[in-house]
């Protein structure tokens, strides 16, 4: 899975601070220089003042200002299983690659796993992998080889039958019903800072499913570069307070 930032609010933490200062300032923030707005906040320079204010907001549960800064991601190769989990977050906006209008009729069925069309879970080829609700622990090499062969053959058969249905005139929107839930899909998603922290509360947790946990870690890596003060505080002091930022 690959994540790219398509668009993001410029100076997101300045915007967050402006929104927060609006709540307590007598002057109109639209006509006031940022330095003046932050004048009474503790700190030796503007960055320290922003850190003080953002930390105060997060520690006191004042999350509204974090809803103004937005970021849009493009995600390549997410399984439809992962997408079903992610789209439960109704405060995120999504556009999802259509399997009605994008047909996978020119892909070699023998290459769909290695080519990324279908996501293979690590438990299919890693004997030491232990997932949630697994009935047994680590398995021997012979068992995991059988798993991988069975997984690959099942996926290949599904894709072959999907393509045969297309050849028989079935529309892609109906033929897709035979494809596995691990079929990869590209997604564009937009969300604000508060919602991103909420998603991370839910999906970066140790008991989250491996794929959406990996996706969330990539989103957080990008967010740390875009909104560094906020996500440094989040990672150090808030990440383990599960569901703290539920909208």
What key phrases describe this protein's structure?
247 residues; four-stranded antiparallel β-sheet; 12% strand; elongated
* Quaternary class: single chain
Globular, elongated, flat, extended or rod-shaped: what is the shape? elongated
Strand order of the largest sheet: 1-2-4-3
What helical percentage do the residues reach? 40-55%
Number of strands: 4
Rg, Å, rounded = 23 Å
Walk me through what this model shows.
- This protein is α+β, with helices and mostly antiparallel strands and about 250 residues long.
- The chain is about 45% helix and about 10% strand.
- The protein has a 4-stranded antiparallel sheet.
- Helix 1 crosses helix 3 (about 45-60) and helix 3 crosses helix 9 (about 230-240).
- The longest helix has 27 residues, at about 140-165.
- It is elongated.
- The relative contact order is 0.18.
Task: Show the helix and strand layout.
Blueprint: E1 2-8, H1 12-22, H2 34-37, H3 46-59, E2 70-79, H4 80-86, E3 93-96, H5 141-167, H6 172-175, E4 184-192, H7 193-203, H8 210-226, H9 228-238
Antiparallel strand pairs: 1-2, 2-4, 3-4
Helix pairs in contact: 1-3, 3-9, 7-8, 8-9
């Amino acid at each position: 899975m690959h994540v790219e930032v398509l668009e993001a609010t410029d100076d997101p933490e300045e915007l967050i601070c402006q929104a927060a200062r609006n709540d307590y300032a007598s002057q109109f923030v639209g006509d006031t220089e940022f330095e003046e707005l932050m004048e009474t906040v503790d700190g030796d320079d503007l960055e320290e003042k922003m850190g003080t204010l953002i930390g105060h907001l997060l520690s006191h549960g004042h999350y509204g200002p974090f809803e103004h800064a937005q970021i849009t991601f493009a995600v390549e190769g997410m399984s439809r299983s992962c997408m079903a989990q992610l789209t439960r977050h109704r405060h995120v906006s999504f556009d999802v690659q259509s399997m009605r209008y994008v047909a996978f009729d020119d892909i070699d069925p023998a290459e769909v796993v290695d080519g990324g069309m279908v996501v293979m879970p690590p438990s299919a080829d890693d004997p030491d992998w232990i997932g949630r609700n697994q009935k047994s622990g680590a398995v021997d090499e012979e068992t995991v080889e059988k798993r991988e062969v069975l997984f690959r053959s099942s996926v290949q058969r599904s894709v072959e039958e999907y393509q045969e249905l297309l050849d028989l005139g079935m529309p892609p929107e109906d033929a897709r019903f035979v494809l596995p839930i691990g079929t990869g899909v590209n997604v564009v998603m937009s969300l604000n800072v508060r919602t991103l922290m909420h998603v991370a509360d839910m999906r970066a947790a140790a008991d989250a499913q491996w794929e959406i946990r990996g996706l969330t870690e990539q989103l957080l890596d990008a967010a740390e570069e875009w909104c560094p003060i906020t996500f440094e505080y989040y990672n150090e002091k808030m990440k383990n307070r599960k569901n703290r930022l539920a909208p």
